[in-house]
Design brief:
405 residues, alpha/beta, Anaerobic Ribonucleotide-triphosphate Reductase Large Chain, 11 helices, globular
Length: 405
């Protein structure tokens, strides 16, 4: 297990509050050192701001973000998330491709739902258009690593690109790369009950150490500790594959029938563990970040609909999914709508980080040279443009099926 990120949430303001940035940098360096001394690997330190349309001027935004990114990097932030474009600021969506094309280590997103449990069709279309624009920024389609469509997502998720904060005092949370815990817990189990118990015990033991350190730093710096996102994020290493862990339960191959019950089992198990939570705290299925998922994609066992079906019982939605390079915005738009409808109806936080790969067709294999990716098969889109009412602008109210209590 590793801490993928100590994510700080703060509003740097415009012009940037350099004193605040310096203080955040001091916190970050101190925290990373203390975690390391406790035997806990921290991979990155990240800064997430409130949604950028609410505080960052849109005029000359590329230059402003470049300057902010340099200042954040200077104080020790490995990555910067500017939060989502918002439906109430429709012009903010169109700014994203230019910003991401002219920066490094900057993440941005687009929120396609409203606080009133509505799906905003215009926002979803803008996101689909951004995905196709970002696919062309680099020859391998890598630009979409830095962008995601969000649905029903709340502040203080520490995973990127989803992360964004609010305008309160600085806060922080921990994003956990914990798939290896599930691999170990399930490999040694002789029954499902034992597998469940092993994982709960491992998560709670590791969480206790992290919470002790987090609480200490919250008190020391007067920052709010939001908690842990123990989503079992994988890594391309075979011993950190969440799909490998799921298959150890008895699933012949992830993507086949039985994948939903395996996904539900592991998320239900996580729900039973006791620790302070923020973000997703579920099952993450990033196709290109997991060696087994990437292999199943090469074998043709995965498609968008099966991944969406698993999203109904797991965590993050559709993540780093490689698609044919000729995918159009009109074809991607329905996928975003399906993801958002699930999020609203089931009252879940879901995202879609889709990656059309230029020059590739369904069944081809990606060719990334990136330490955090395992090359996988291009997944067929199997989507057609919508027409009629769904092709119009406007909002669709989709209330949660769970009544308020």
């Amino acid at each position: 297990m590793k801490v993928r990120s100590i994510t700080l949430f703060a509003n740097p303001g415009y012009p940037p509050n350099r004193l605040l940035l310096d203080q955040l940098g001091i916190f970050a360096r101190h925290a990373k050192s203390a975690f390391s001394q406790a035997g806990i690997i921290v991979e990155t330190i990240r800064l997430a701001t409130p949604p950028f349309p609410q505080w960052l001027p849109q005029r000359n935004i590329v230059q402003l973000v470049q300057e902010l990114s340099i200042e954040a990097s200077a104080v020790g932030m490995d990555y910067l998330s500017l939060g989502p474009a918002l439906p109430e600021f429709p012009e903010s969506f169109a700014l994203i491709p230019d910003v991401l094309a002219n920066t490094q280590n900057v993440f941005m997103t687009g929120l396609v739902t409203t606080a009133n449990h509505e799906l905003d069709l215009g926002a979803a279309k803008y996101c689909a258009e951004n995905i196709t624009r970002l696919a062309a920024i680099e020859p391998n389609g890598f630009g979409n690593l830095y962008f995601s469509a969000l649905a029903n997502v709340k502040p203080f998720c520490p995973f990127f690109p989803t992360a964004f904060g609010d305008f309160d005092q600085p806060a922080f949370a921990l994003a956990i790369e914990g798939a290896s815990l599930a691999v170990q817990a399930f490999a040694s189990a002789k029954t499902l009950a034992e597998a469940r118990g092993n994982l709960i015990q491992s998560v709670e033991q590791e969480a206790a150490k992290l919470v002790e350190l987090g609480t200490k730093f919250a008190s020391m710096y007067k920052y709010t500790f939001k908690g842990l996102d123990f989503t079992l994020a994988p890594h391309p290493d075979a011993n950190a594959s969440i799909a490998c862990a799921l298959e150890a339960l008895g699933l012949p191959a992830f993507g086949e029938a039985g994948s939903v019950v395996a996904s539900a089992f592991i998320t239900d198990t996580l729900d039973r563990a006791i620790y302070p939570r923020t973000g997703f705290n579920g099952l993450m299925l990033p196709v290109l970040e997991d060696s087994t998922l990437a292999a199943r994609a090469r074998e043709g066992r995965l498609d968008l609909h099966s991944l969406l079906l698993c999203s109904a019982v797991c965590g993050t939605g559709l993540d780093v999914v490689p698609l044919p390079g000729n995918s159009t915005a009109d074809e991607i738009f329905p996928i975003i709508l399906d993801m958002a409808a699930l999020a609203l109806r089931l009252d879940k936080q879901l995202t879609a980080r889709l990656m059309p790969i230029p020059g590739k067709k369904a069944g081809d294999v990606t060719e990334f040279a990136f330490d955090y990716f395992a090359n996988g098969g291009i997944i067929p889109l199997r989507s057609q443009p919508l027409n009629g009412f769904f092709a119009e602008q406007g909002k669709i109210s989709i209330k949660s099926k769970y009544p308020l209590v």
